[in-house]
Amino acid sequence: MFKSLLIATALTTTLFAGGAFAAAHAPQATIHVVTTDSGKVYSDAKGMTLYTFDKDAKGVSNCNDGCAAKWPPLMAPAKAQGEGQFSVVTRADGSKQWAVNGMPLYTWIKDKKPGDVTGDGVKGVWHIAKP
């Protein structure tokens, strides 16, 4: 069901343009493509659907505090680097978050099992991240 996407630091050892990245710095998050009732979507390593937020700007997360409690960001390690359509944004608190096409990625606390897509369309500003 899962098709892993190669993103920077997603594998135990990943090569960057500047050289090898040590396994000790590899993230715990890998982005996958899964098939749901809404078609193919991006998911986290646990198969939970990833979403984007219309109130974010490219490269900027505007979902903090209470928002982030409901829409947990897909966190990236401090030294993560993006590759291709995947990038890393710095959150207001200085932590790092994965993004696709510059848009930060989130899960939704009301999705209870892999493949759930209950966050799509919430308040008209949350949307499934699709390949």
TrEMBL record:
It comes from the Bacteria. PANTHER family: BLL4220 PROTEIN. This is ATP-binding protein. Pfam families: Lipoprotein_15 (PF03640). GO terms for biological process: alkane catabolic process. InterPro entries: Lipoprotein_repeat (IPR005297), UCP029720 (IPR014558). Residues 1-22 form the signal peptide. Keywords: Signal. It comes from Profundibacter amoris.
